[in-house]
Amino acid sequence: MSDLVEIVPGRVTLITLRRPGRRNALNTAMLDALREALAVADTDEQARCIVLQGEGDHFCAGADFGDVTAGAEGGARYGAGFEALLRSIEEHRLPVVAGVQGAALGAGCQLLAACDLAVAAEDARIGIPSARLGLLLDLEKIQRMAAVVGIPTVREMLLAGREWTGVEAAERGLVTAAVPRSALAAAVAGLAERVASCAPLSVQGSKAGLRAIVDHGPLDRMRDGAAFERHDERAIAAAQSEDLREGLAALRERRPPEFRGR
User: Where is 193: in which H helix or E strand?
Assistant: First the structure.
């Protein structure tokens, strides 16, 4: 594993961007290391949730423009690697919770948007300053942002170069909650543990179902039979699972459930 990205396995797996001197700006090596870390988490049967965070004062200040502008070949490689990373987060079997402090700008904002849940410091800076830099996002990135926060908010972000605080981002649905900076670590850990305590088959199936809707728009059982078939298989597995029996028993016995993912 690269020293640019740290992974700490566990029930809640921690993945940390470790380039604080550059405000955790993403270079090509970090993209590769992040995808590797996500792949490692995918093989850990004990993992229930992933927390993605940045070391130091910032979550991720954006792309490393030294790599982005390193000629046509280098720029193309970076673009393909970044899109692959975003899809790796979206398609991962485990929910990913982002903890956001300081800057989450440009590629950092897009990284945040690919996560399933997020908690931001109230004074975080979140946005995509492409209009102020003269850049144009590719259509996949624009579509992803629109799916998360809606067209009006994306218009303000991309046409006017607008940035938001963590509080404003929470109001727009870009993050789940905003808390004082001093409370961020505890809030992220609490949300991740809440996810990890839920039934894995239900959580993972719901994430996959939501991703199918985001990718394809409103689904119709007659037209999109394959998507419904995959989701139905997950629902049947959940209905026949030991976890469901444990959840019902815990409800009857008024105790916390102990889910095992089977």
Answer: helix 184-196
Q: Contact, 153 vs 172, CB < 8 A?
A: yes
CB contact set of 156 (below 8 Å; sequence gap of 6+): 162
Q: Are 131 and 161 in contact (CB under 8 A)?
A: yes
The label of the residue with tokens 């830099």 reads 133
Phi, psi at 258, each rounded to 5°: -120, 90
β-strand 125-127 against 103-105: which pairing, if any?
parallel
Count of CA atoms in the C-beta half-sphere (13 A) of 225: 2
Residue located via tokens 């300081």: 102
The token pair at 194 is 């809440």
What tens digit of pLDDT does each residue of 34-52 get?
Answer: 999 999 999 999 999 999 9
Encoding tokens for residue 62?
A: 């954006």
Q: Domain map of the chain by residue range?
A: 5-195, 199-253
Helix, strand or coil, per DSSP, at residue 164: strand
Backbone angles phi, psi at 229, to 5 degrees: -60, -45
Question: Helices 200-216 and 225-239 meet at what angle, rounded to 10?
Answer: 170
Q: Which CATH class is domain 5-195?
A: alpha beta
pTM for this prediction: 0.84
The Cα–Cα gap between 153 and 176 comes to 16
Confidence band of 239 (pLDDT split at 50, 70, 90): low
